Amino acid sequence: MKKPSDLGTNRTGIGVSPVESKRLMEGSVQGVPSAAVTAEGLKRVRVELSREADPVGTMPPPATIKGAVKTVVEGLKGQKATVFLDQMAERLAFERTGTRLYEALMSKLAAADPHPGGPTAAELVQIRDDELAHFHLLKAAIESMGGDPTAITPSADIAAVASMGLVKVLADPRTTLNEGLKTILIAELADNEAWRTLTELASRLGQDDLAEQFQAAAQDEEEHLALLRTWVADSVQGEAGLEPLVTEARVP
Hints:
Blueprint: H1 18-30, H2 39-52, H3 65-76, H4 81-111, H5 121-144, H6 154-162, H7 164-171, H8 177-204, H9 208-239
């Protein structure tokens, strides 16, 4: 079986056909419309549409009377409980996707050749379990605030759309373990930043118990990120025929 780094029949670059590439560039110049379409004009249209468009979505009403009371009380304090619920729902959606990404990566590992310096099956299982535990943590947190964890909030919707490409890469049988690792690294980078934001938000809103739990989850995510960075570096250098780096920190 070929590897992605092997030479193949890729003919996407213009360098493979100098004659046709010259004609292509000439045609691109001739094909420019004569109408006065400028970058500044497009920018103005985008700004106008952005000002007039409705939001992607809105927050659902509280699922319980307790939730309604809490939302009103927090609103009177100048603290929008809906923002907190929206951010928790975003992380919940992302952690659910993260669990599925690691499930897919485990299949990539099972199908891959021996991979010195790469993850072990036990390590991927542990990280998958951490992601699932974070999902349940957020579910309980949303319910404790009177929210509905099954509701798709605006930020949760955006997170789901943004992560669609990651899911497609991991679900594609043609992609390798190395490509899967690089894809999940993207998710872990975003996840780390978002957990920091959520933890700080919980703390500033006086949700000290949740802030403490979120901080523990954020520490888990930092460990995941450190491992992914090492695995990706090892995989790229291994493809280049170099010895893998020594991974000092491993998931227990």
